[in-house]
Design goal:
By secondary structure, this protein is mostly beta strands. Helices cover about 5% and strands about 50% of the residues.
Length: about 120
Protein backbone atom coordinates (compact mmCIF):
# COMPACT_ATOMS: atom_id res chain seq x y z
CA UNK A 1 0.00 0.00 0.00
CA UNK A 2 1.16 3.53 -0.87
CA UNK A 3 0.32 6.50 1.36
CA UNK A 4 0.56 10.04 -0.02
CA UNK A 5 1.06 13.28 1.90
CA UNK A 6 0.88 16.59 0.03
CA UNK A 7 2.20 20.04 0.87
CA UNK A 8 2.99 23.37 -0.77
CA UNK A 9 -0.42 24.69 -1.78
CA UNK A 10 -1.38 28.27 -1.11
CA UNK A 11 -2.12 31.70 -2.53
CA UNK A 12 0.01 33.16 -5.31
CA UNK A 13 -0.24 36.15 -7.66
CA UNK A 14 -0.72 35.74 -11.41
CA UNK A 15 2.65 35.21 -13.08
CA UNK A 16 4.12 33.80 -9.90
CA UNK A 17 5.45 30.36 -9.05
CA UNK A 18 4.62 27.62 -6.59
CA UNK A 19 6.00 24.14 -5.94
CA UNK A 20 3.83 21.29 -4.72
CA UNK A 21 5.30 18.26 -2.99
CA UNK A 22 3.88 14.77 -2.51
CA UNK A 23 5.67 12.37 -0.19
CA UNK A 24 5.00 8.65 -0.63
CA UNK A 25 5.42 5.91 1.94
CA UNK A 26 4.39 2.32 2.58
CA UNK A 27 6.04 0.71 -0.43
CA UNK A 28 8.95 1.06 -2.83
CA UNK A 29 8.46 4.53 -4.28
CA UNK A 30 10.69 4.07 -7.30
CA UNK A 31 8.46 1.30 -8.69
CA UNK A 32 5.38 3.55 -8.95
CA UNK A 33 4.18 6.03 -11.50
CA UNK A 34 3.08 9.35 -9.98
CA UNK A 35 0.64 11.94 -11.21
CA UNK A 36 -1.18 15.16 -10.50
CA UNK A 37 -4.83 15.96 -11.19
CA UNK A 38 -6.71 19.17 -10.47
CA UNK A 39 -10.35 20.13 -10.04
CA UNK A 40 -11.74 23.65 -10.12
CA UNK A 41 -15.07 24.43 -8.40
CA UNK A 42 -17.99 23.05 -10.39
CA UNK A 43 -15.73 21.50 -13.04
CA UNK A 44 -14.44 18.06 -13.93
CA UNK A 45 -11.22 16.64 -12.56
CA UNK A 46 -8.48 17.05 -15.16
CA UNK A 47 -5.09 15.43 -15.62
CA UNK A 48 -2.14 17.77 -15.06
CA UNK A 49 0.98 15.60 -15.40
CA UNK A 50 2.37 12.09 -15.03
CA UNK A 51 5.87 10.81 -14.37
CA UNK A 52 6.66 7.11 -14.72
CA UNK A 53 9.09 5.06 -12.67
CA UNK A 54 11.49 5.42 -15.58
CA UNK A 55 11.23 9.21 -15.62
CA UNK A 56 9.03 9.61 -18.69
CA UNK A 57 6.58 12.51 -18.45
CA UNK A 58 3.31 13.64 -19.97
CA UNK A 59 1.57 17.01 -19.55
CA UNK A 60 -1.82 18.40 -20.37
CA UNK A 61 -1.76 21.03 -23.10
CA UNK A 62 -2.90 23.73 -20.69
CA UNK A 63 0.22 23.43 -18.50
CA UNK A 64 2.92 22.20 -20.87
CA UNK A 65 5.84 24.61 -20.88
CA UNK A 66 4.81 26.16 -17.55
CA UNK A 67 4.66 23.19 -15.17
CA UNK A 68 7.31 20.56 -14.52
CA UNK A 69 6.80 17.24 -12.76
CA UNK A 70 9.85 15.59 -11.20
CA UNK A 71 10.72 12.99 -8.61
CA UNK A 72 13.42 12.47 -6.00
CA UNK A 73 13.53 8.76 -5.22
CA UNK A 74 15.95 9.26 -2.33
CA UNK A 75 13.25 11.33 -0.60
CA UNK A 76 10.27 9.28 -1.88
CA UNK A 77 8.82 12.55 -3.15
CA UNK A 78 7.28 13.85 -6.37
CA UNK A 79 7.11 17.57 -7.16
CA UNK A 80 5.05 19.83 -9.37
CA UNK A 81 6.85 23.08 -10.15
CA UNK A 82 4.31 25.62 -11.38
CA UNK A 83 5.54 28.76 -13.14
CA UNK A 84 3.76 31.62 -14.92
CA UNK A 85 0.61 30.86 -12.98
CA UNK A 86 -2.74 32.02 -14.32
CA UNK A 87 -6.13 32.57 -12.71
CA UNK A 88 -7.32 29.47 -14.58
CA UNK A 89 -4.83 27.34 -12.63
CA UNK A 90 -6.86 27.85 -9.45
CA UNK A 91 -8.01 24.41 -8.30
CA UNK A 92 -7.58 21.65 -5.77
CA UNK A 93 -4.54 19.64 -6.82
CA UNK A 94 -4.49 15.90 -6.11
CA UNK A 95 -1.43 13.68 -6.02
CA UNK A 96 -1.94 10.07 -7.10
CA UNK A 97 0.01 6.89 -7.68
CA UNK A 98 -0.19 3.48 -9.31
CA UNK A 99 2.20 0.81 -10.49
CA UNK A 100 0.64 1.21 -13.94
CA UNK A 101 1.02 4.61 -15.63
CA UNK A 102 -2.05 3.86 -17.73
CA UNK A 103 -4.22 3.81 -14.61
CA UNK A 104 -3.26 7.41 -13.88
CA UNK A 105 -3.86 8.42 -17.48
CA UNK A 106 -7.41 7.02 -17.34
CA UNK A 107 -8.14 8.53 -13.93
CA UNK A 108 -8.25 5.25 -12.00
CA UNK A 109 -5.05 5.06 -9.92
CA UNK A 110 -4.95 2.92 -6.79
CA UNK A 111 -3.91 5.76 -4.47
CA UNK A 112 -4.89 9.40 -4.02
CA UNK A 113 -3.68 12.17 -1.78
CA UNK A 114 -6.01 14.44 0.16
CA UNK A 115 -5.71 17.38 -2.21
CA UNK A 116 -4.14 20.80 -1.71
CA UNK A 117 -5.67 24.14 -2.64
CA UNK A 118 -3.87 26.40 -5.11
CA UNK A 119 -5.36 29.87 -5.53
CA UNK A 120 -4.06 32.33 -8.13
CA UNK A 121 -5.37 35.80 -7.41
CA UNK A 122 -4.27 39.42 -7.70
Amino acid sequence: QVQLVESGGGLVQPGGSLRLSCAASGSVFSNYAMGWYRQAPGEQRDLVAIITSGGNTIYSASVKGRFTISRDNAKNTVYLQMNSLKFEDTAVYFCNSDRRPGAILTGTPDYWGQGTQVTVSS
